[in-house]
Amino acid sequence: MIVVDASVWMSGLTPRDIFHEISRSWLASQHARNIMLAIPVICLAEVSGAISRVTGYSEDGLRAIDQILARSNLRVLPVDHPLGLEAAQLAAQLHLRGADAVYVALARRLNIPLATWDQELLQRGGQIVTIQQPG
Description:
Layout: E1 2-4, H1 6-13, H2 20-32, E2 37-40, H3 42-55, H4 58-69, E3 74-77, H5 81-94, H6 98-110, E4 114-115, H7 119-125, E5 131-132
Parallel strand pairs: 1-2, 1-4, 2-3, 4-5
């Protein structure tokens, strides 16, 4: 199992993204190998909002969420009170954006790696959990 942040989903679902082919291929390979992907529920809002902002169409953001949720190898996990507190502590300790800290906290809670394209998250979150780029 691996936690996948919004940057990977965004690039995999956005053909104009510089990492599109790598992300799309990596996500497909995880599915083919039956590797479970974990996301915090906030990832859905991050992806739908970002895609609809890029394209200008809310339907595109909603379609992206349908594509993510259709994956049989996906676990969508809640951000409960303890995870939220842990993320808040990590955000302060590592100087991370709030959502980024949630991904790190989830990866730490599950004791699994985190996949991202976010350079700041790679550098700062890598102090706490194993972080990798797709591909």
